[in-house]
Amino acid sequence: MSTGLYGILTQQAIKGNIECMLYYLPVSPYRPAIDPQRRQYQNPEDILAKIGLTSGMTFIDVGCGGGFFAMPAARIVGNTGKVIGFDVNIEGLEALKELAAKEGLYHVDVAAGSAEETVLCEKCADIIFFGLVVVHLQEPVKALVNAGKMLKTGGRAVVFDWKKKLTRQGPPMEQRLSEKQVTGFIEAAGMKPISVGETGPYHYVITAEVLKCS
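Predicted structure:
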């Protein structure tokens, strides 16, 4: 996240009934939901299918931006499911809410907040998705701990990110994390990685679950 700051007051008045919390949130540019160029190397439907998203699930999109993953997720889970997108960027959340309403996807909710400070609900989510966001978190372990609190029993946290190697697409090396670094964060947060795999030439996907109490 970038370093600019602005204050957010608790309210439900920002266009799409966005629930805001009282603290300072960093400002970051958001990525739009509709991006044909990005789709050439990141196909959200394929990625969501790979992580096991199906009809009726509750999907939380951490750092959702304008909804590149949240919108396809909403179509997949359908009206019997739920999608919650949250981000520090109000403009992106407004864009997501507006786009969802245009498609009649009224099971999409949004909330403003940082992953390190936000627990939207207790044991409510089937999948919590961190799409290209972990490297930008100030405290990734704390964010993953919060994710663990929101996961249902048997739910999964998923990290989708750039491989830490030179590729034709993607950010510079200093803005990438290796699979080993991310699994270290996951384990420090009290979760267990259950799969580490590739999705195309540029990205990896790590799936984790909360450790069961013995």
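Summary: The mean pLDDT is 87.
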